[in-house]
Amino acid sequence: MNFGLLFTTALGSLSSNKLRASLTLLGIVIGVSSVIAMMAVGRGAQVSVTSRISELGTDLITVRPGAQALRFAFFGGGGNSDVVSLGDALSLDDEVFSPNARVIAPENSFSGTATFGRENTFVNGVGVTAEYIEARNLKIASGRNISNIDVQNDSLVAVLGSATSEALFGQRDSVGSTIKISNREFTVVGVLKSQQGTIFNPDNSVLIPITTAYYRMNNGKGPRESISVSAINILAKSEKVVDAARLEISTVLRLNHELDADEEDDFLITTQQDTIETLEGTQGTFVILLGSIAGISLLVGGIGVMNIMLVSVTERTREIGIRRAVGAKRRDILLQFVTEAVMMTFGGGVLGVVAGWAIAHFGNGATVSGDVIETVIEAQIAVLALAVSVAVGLFFGIYPAVRAASLNPIEALRHE
Q1: In whole angstroms, what is the distance from residue 109 CA to residue 201 CA?
Q2: With contact defined as beta carbons under 8 Å apart, do 348 and 28 qualify?
Q3: Distance of CA 94 to the CA centre of its chain
Q4: DSSP string covering 246-299, please?
Q5: What is the pTM of this model?
Q6: Which residues contact 291 (CB under 8 A, 6 or more apart)?
Q7: Residue 65: what are its φ and ψ, rounded to 5°?
Q8: What's the rounded Cα separation, in Å, for the pair 244 and 239?
Q9: For the segment 364-387, what is each residue's pLDDT rounded down to a tens digit?
């Protein structure tokens, strides 16, 4: 059969039942547009998180206690290797042993309620040194930063995150005011610029000297070098020397913790690239899951195509008999019905691509429950969805086509 004639015949058959064909088409449109829209949302979230992590700087290295060290710390282990300590941070600030590290910023954490007059808010407290805001790429909006003199004197001073300051003081300047954190009085010396939209948002935090956090908020004891820290933030001198700096940090810490050559590290060293790769792997799985869920609707649409084609075969039994009687081969009947199924799914696929692109485009920047949705539309996803829709037409159209081609011409002519 001539392909032009095949196409014209299939189009005429579909046109004879416009409503039925349109409803079948709609199932494919919904399936394809769902796949594209969901994948666009998933990829948008992946790109957004990756870019937010990158904003912290690709030269950032973080040291945290290892799993074994944390067990020792929680259940009463002793010795310097139980946790990462302030002494570890101080030993890394050495041009001889770690020449590729330029900023060392240890931190420890606490939580509590900050109050001012009748206002109160829960805060995530961070004990820091003066270098912390540079390491974490933070900015001071008003007042000053925590100083190293504050750290030396265990001063009761605090730098508020923008949301914490607003919760306690509204639009008033909070610098110079006295607040209470867990019933201890602190003088507010600075306020951070808002970091809304970043992945590590400090807007609800309070920064205080690391020694104050350890001795006064966490009731710690012992010399300052033994102060346990939850993390050490280190900036390498450049992105190019991150791996070298990581090796230097590992060597210094192993020496500090007196680890033998066959002993594993009791600390964890991660870079921003490690974090990005982990999140990309996790979110890649999430994107595939979203696409798979949306793909179910495309599968349902395919089942609808097969159902309609089976009905069409039954209704057109006499027509098939006449075609066979005037010389049409089984192959011609098979191709005719497969073509009709593919035309429906291809047309639905094209409309679905347009609809999915429109949903993703106009949904970009929308706010849901305070979160901004970001979408990334990728051409390969649209092409893949369109190809899958055609494959669905082939898969679900073959059985009805085979059934039509297998009809006995004589029995088909007798059919009423």
Answers
A1: 15
A2: yes
A3: 37
A4: HHHHHHHHHHHTT--TTSPPSEEEEEHHHHHHHHHHHHHHHHHHHHHHHHHHHH
A5: 0.60
A6: 35, 38, 39, 42
A7: -60, 140
A8: 10
A9: 877 766 566 778 777 887 888 888
